[in-house]
Amino acid sequence: MIDRVLDSRELDRFDWQFLAVTAAILSLGVLSIYSVTLAQAGTGLPLYVKQVLWILVGCAAFAAMLRVDYHKIARWSYVLYGLILILLVVVLVVGKTSRGAQRWIPMGPFAFQPSELAKLVLILVLATYYAHAPRAGWMQRVVLPCLVMLPGLLLILKQPDLGSGLSFLAICATLLLVVGMRSKAMGILLLCAVMLFPFVWELLWGALHDYQRERITTFLDPAYDTGGKGYHALQSRIAIGSGELLGKGLHGGTQNQLKFLPEGHTDFVFAVFAEEWGFLGALLVLALFLGLLMLSLEIALKAKDVLGALLAAGIVGMLGFCLMVNIGMTAGLLPIVGIPLPLMSYGGSAVVTTMAALGLLLNIKRRRLTLFY
Amino acid sequence: MPQFGTQQEELREIQRRLTILKIALSAIIGLLAIRLWDLQVRDGAYYRDLSENNRTRTVVLEPARGLIYDRQGVLLANNVPSFGLYVMLEDVKDRQALIAGLVGLIGSDETALRKKLSERGGKFMPRKLKGGLSLREAALIESHRRDLPGVLVRADSQRNYPSGPTLAHVLGYVGQVSAEQLEKAESQELHQGSLVGQYGVEKAYDRFLRGRAGQKEIEVDALGHEKRTVSVEKPAAGDDLYLSIDLRLQRLAEELLGEEAGAIVALDPTNGEVLALASRPSFDPNVLSRELTAKQWAAIVQNDSHPLTNRATQGQYPPGSTFKIVMATAALESHTATPSTKIRCVGGFPFGRRVYKDWKAGGHGFMDVTQALVESCDVFFYTVGQRMGIDMIADFADQFGLGQETGVELPSERTGIVPSTAWKAKAKGQPWLPGETISAAIGQGYVTVTPMQMAHLIATVANGGTSFRPRIVRAVMERASGLSHEVPTVPHGRLAVAPETLALVKEALAGVVTRGTAARARSTLVSIAGKTGTAQTAALRTGPEQDIPKKLRDHAWFVSYAPVDAPRIAVAVLVEHMGHGGSAAAPLAKQIIEAFVRYERAEPKLAGRPEVGRPEGLALAMQEPR
Per CATH, is B58-110+124-243 categorized as 3.90.1310.10? Predict the structure, then answer.
């Protein structure tokens, strides 16, 4: 029989580090949102206050995910996935449309974005699946999980939400990598990918909205037209670069204060931060994220069972991918796709989901010292 | 457990592979750090330079709003230049001094100024403090510019309605876009500070009138002041509207109502065009289109006589005896009564434990349906109403367009109520009582209608059962192409009623004027047909009319059309609390109809569709304000 006990009721040093890094990243996010949105006229609560409220909700989600044994949560993963699929259908029917994409379910004064939550649920489903799958052929290891992922992916791409769709693929890829495909399976998958590429490309490219296509095409040459298509990428680069070593100081970022840089509080929050706090500030953010990812990997490495290790690996994959794509696009390394920077970008659904994921991580860590009889 | 071993083995395998992830993530973050070093440190100076030269600023150029004309080309709404007071917060050294200075110079409201200054918003963008400055105020401020750093006076455009409160409910007014409207709008259409229609045609046709904003890219100095224009995308002016309203009839209708509350709607029954739509009391859209203080706004909204309510489309009144047009048609069509059915009226109709009175104490004697309409006998309709039942009445009322929007292009039209058993179960959760059918039969009880619905109803009767959706805009003149697009006539269905029935009802309606309750609508100029109505507002009333407080007195109705054999105008008149329809409403309808006929004779083109052209002498008004 296996009995699980918590290693300690007290928070140990590891927990404190984990919480401190998280809190630091959240605070830097709120600071940047405060700086950008102060200049924007508007009624109602300022966005940075709203973000703080969302973080409080996130704390509740964090605590909830920490309390319940992750094995119990995993038992519900298929049900949760079913519910998420329903929500993704609902959003296509009654969803609020903004900039040509239908991503939000209106709920009173707020709007809920199911595709954010879907990422976490996908990690749960795939980890649960692999934890129980026998060490069988590549059919069970590769094809079935991909089929499980497919309906969610297609519904998200229909919205269209390219960023969340890519996150889905990244999560799937991370788990495939970690679970370990044999070289033969890897080869077949690669071959399939190459053969399917034209069709998938057509499907994806055809499903993209004009603004998304422009963002990708202009990535190739953003300097081509400063007033038009490459505007975003160029202004973002100017914002980051002009921060130089020490930055321009709070509210000093002319790029965002004068509205050269749109979306400063959401997808481009890193550019705002880097403009106002310089290379040193940007490095601090990178260091904090590196710390968070390494602590999370530590949890995966020391997890006591396959389920725990895979859950942790999936979450690390998700956070790492979002970090890479977001900072990569603001710094002009990658095309602009709408992926928020975890814990820093404004947005309730993303903040709450990410904090729930972190709660799940700590849950895995705190249940790793188990007693075997 | 055999499974246990493989689990542990697999776990170790997984954890070995996690190292790949670890290396990959470290490498990615390292790569990002190098990229940031390149951007911020190696090329930092270059980008800093670029950001400092990022001095072009985009300024929105407001489009000129489309103009509105009546059916003869009389200007109803245009734009006039005005001065706006702006401030660039970045340049303001001392807010206290600024406020004191402005209060001293132009006597602005100190708290309002303080509020505007402390609102959230960028300090690099000029912010509007006050619109509609007089020339004198603008000059005063200009001459004191040195003492008021940061203050700017700019030429703005102000919406102007030359005829003031006349036609206010139809035209509506404009105002700055609200936060909600901004949220709902398609991304590019509107922006903070846009003027949008908030009421009436201004709101309903806002998409056409609004035009498209342009933008100007300007180069600014370090303080944000304009130095040079880099590029200009001109704004596109909004489209002009030509209404079907005849301003002369409109003025007459409003003068006839005078100080009384009420509504007059005149339609062309052959196509649904609204010739006049008066609602009193009215308001001045010029005042509402300016920036009102909270106090001014409260005074208008809280006014007991509700001047902002368009009584023609939003006022819901019991139709009283005008409803008998529906009842007579229903009785004949359902064969509840034949043209020769006679019912004896003795001045009352006993039902249940009470007697429903006729307006004529002694009764009308033997009545057929025609005579019952002519003399407006209540007992006849009590009887047929009771025989038909409420649901059959409701079916016919529905066919006549009651209980639903007429579809006229004015926002927030009300529907009134056509009661039925289903309606009562839904609205009140109670079963229908038989006595309520008796009240409904003479247009009392739960039945309510709007004057627009009654105008539409009588126009349908006048036009032999074919109805058109009432409409106010005849044509939209596209500014870009100079072409005018006529708004098509929209058929609104046909009454499924035998021609003989309608002919009988029409003959009776002519009789109402020649020998019945609307003798005061008789005209020497033209033959008129119609139906009077007196809508009770309070259930229990005793004593002579003049002793009753005015707000409890009856509403007077008259619905009519002319000429009798080939109707070209249909008029519905409602005057609140003025007693009998025959005495208070019918004479007003007569005057409108006579005026219409006189205009028509003077210029036969009126009835037809004159070509929509740009009237002369408007060049000045059409000039863009800036």
Answer: yes
Minimal Cβ distance to A282: which of B40, B45, B124: B40
Candidates B84, B83, B63; CA nearest to B128 is B84
For the segment B15-29, what is each residue's pLDDT rounded down to a tens digit? Answer: 888 888 898 899 999
* Confidence (pLDDT) at A213: 63
ipTM above 0.85, yes or no: yes
**CA–centroid distance for A132 within its chain:** 26
pLDDT at A8: 47
Tell me the CB-side half-sphere exposure of residue B330, using CA atoms within 13 A.
27
Beta carbons of A178 and B21 less than 8 Å apart: yes
**Domain range list for chain B:** 58-110+124-243, 247-294+308-606
Using DSSP's 3-state secondary structure scheme, residue B49 falls into helix
Find the closest chain A residue to B182 by CA distance. Answer: A42
- Of the candidates A344, A351, A355, the one whose C-alpha atom is nearest the C-alpha of residue A273 is A344
Half-sphere exposure of A166 (CA within 13 A, CB side): 19
Using the 8-state DSSP alphabet, how is residue B37 labeled?
I
Candidate CATH numbers 3.30.70.1150, 3.40.710.10, 3.30.390.50, 3.10.350.10; the one for domain B247-294+308-606? 3.40.710.10
Cβ count within 10 A of residue B163: 19
Tell me which residues of B are annotated as active site.
321
What are B125-153's pLDDT values in tens digits? Answer: 667 787 778 788 888 888 887 778 778 88
| Residue of B15, B31, B37 with shortest CB distance to A309 | B15
Higher-pLDDT residue of B400 and A6 is B400
The reply to whether A36 touches chain B by the CB within 8 Å rule is no
